[in-house]
Amino acid sequence: MLKLYDREASGNCYKVRLLLSFLNMPYERIPVAMKGGKNVVDGSYLQLNPRGQIPTLVDGDTTLWGSTAILCYLAARHDETSGWLPREPARLGEVMQWLELAQNEILNGLFRARAIVKFGLPGDLEAAQQTAQRALGVLESRLATQPWLAGSGPTIADIACFPYAALAVEGKVDIAPCTGVAQWIGRIKSLDRFVGMPGI
Ligand SMILES: N[C@@H](CCC(=O)N[C@@H](CS)C(=O)NCC(=O)O)C(=O)O
């Protein structure tokens, strides 16, 4: 059985839980506590994930850390026809482009603003909120005219960008002007086997 080191309030872990639900894959959740903004982990956890972060996935002999790597692995391990990770080169490249946004402007903007407001982590809230608006602007540039981030159906690009956009209000970031983003959030929530997390 797959094992996911996880926390309910973590948007990065939620990305993995959401894909596992869409793929209908059973897994065991291993909760990791947080204290003073850091995960409470021991040496055996650091053997699995030297960064000490969550999520971490263990699948038999395969151990992976980082939501992007885990999303790619699970989608690739699953049936090729499911479409979550397109194999056609141009579409695969498009998916990677949005995974890059998720790990840059979304992480440094939407994720960071929420971490400061909701969890009291240190950081420059105004700078994070400005970066968050840039991230939303990039999402809106696509979603104003297209239903999904890459190609014509949902992919792991949507899963990677969705949680922190949907949690924007928890970082005091206003998404109201981004009507394409707001509609896309609703579209993802209406997919079969969608699951939420606190705040979504
Ligand atoms: N780029 C990583 C970021 C992972 C990350 O920031 N994890 C947070 C929870 S969302 C964490 O473990 N924070 C506590 C710590 O770093 O000790 C990913 O996408 O998985």
Verbal overview:
With 200 residues, the chain is an alpha+beta fold. The chain has two domains: 2-81, Glutaredoxin (3-Layer(aba) Sandwich); 86-189, Glutathione S-transferase Yfyf (Class Pi), Chain A, domain 2, CATH 1.20.1050. 50% of the residues lie in helices and 11% in strands. It has helices spanning 11-22, 43-48, 67-77, 89-103, 105-119, 125-143, 156-166, 179-189; strands at residues 2-6, 27-31, 34-35, 38-39, 56-59, 62-65. The strands form two sheets. Strands 2-1-5-6 form a four-stranded mixed β-sheet, covered by helices on one side. α5 (105-119) crosses α6 (125-143) and α7 (156-166) crosses α8 (179-189). The relative contact order is 0.15. The structure holds glutathione (GSH). Glutathione (GSH) is lined by residues 10, 12, 34, 38-39, 52-55, 66-68, 103.
One letter per element, helices H and strands E, the order comes to EHEEEHEEHHHHHH
User: Mean of residue pLDDT?
Assistant: 96
Trace the largest sheet across and list its strands: 2-1-5-6
**Mind summarizing the main beta sheet?**
4 strands, mixed
User: What is the number of independent domains?
Assistant: 2
Counting helices, strands and paired strands, the structural category is alpha+beta
The CATH topology of the largest domain comes to: Glutathione S-transferase Yfyf (Class Pi), Chain A, domain 2
Discrete helix count: 8
Name given to the CATH architecture of the largest domain: Up-down Bundle
Bound molecules: glutathione
Overall geometric form: globular
Query: Which stretches of 5+ consecutive residues score pLDDT under 50?
Result: none
Cα-atom Rg, whole angstroms?
16 Å
